[in-house]
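Title: Comparing notes on inverse folding

I've been comparing how different people in this forum approach sequence design from structure. To keep things fair, I'm posting one structure and asking everyone to reply with a full sequence. Here's the target:
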């Protein structure tokens, strides 16, 4: 089992920045590919970004490329999502995810472990 705890959400104006954090515990060595998804009411949970266990490989959704950066600190078992140039359409609940195949199969249905989610609201 893997437990994921997110933090860092909040309210920000358009054009601003936020950094989300996700700390993992449990059997992290078996599920060391981590990432972020987001969801708005009435829509499916969508992939945002993922990072390999070493941090050498990353993947992003087209909608966030160039604005969001995913990184990790393995000494702290923590993954970060630095979000810049935020837009109102980035408003969503952001979920941390862990799954060894996340980069090659970035779909919500394939994810083994989820965090509880953190709300990000971008005002116009």
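Reply #1:
Here's my take.
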């Amino acid at each position: 089992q893997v437990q994921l705890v997110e933090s860092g959400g909040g309210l920000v104006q358009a054009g601003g920045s936020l950094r989300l954090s996700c700390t993992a515990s449990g059997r992290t060595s078996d599920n060391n590919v981590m990432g972020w998804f987001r969801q708005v009411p009435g829509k499916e949970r969508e992939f945002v970004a993922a990072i390999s266990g070493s941090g050498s490989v990353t993947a992003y959704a087209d909608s966030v490329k160039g604005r969001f950066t995913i990184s990790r600190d393995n000494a702290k078992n923590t993954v970060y999502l630095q979000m810049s140039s935020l837009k109102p359409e980035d408003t969503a609940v952001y979920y941390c995810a862990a799954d060894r195949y996340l980069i090659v199969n970035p779909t919500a249905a394939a994810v083994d472990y989820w965090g509880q989610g953190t709300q990000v609201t971008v005002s116009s």
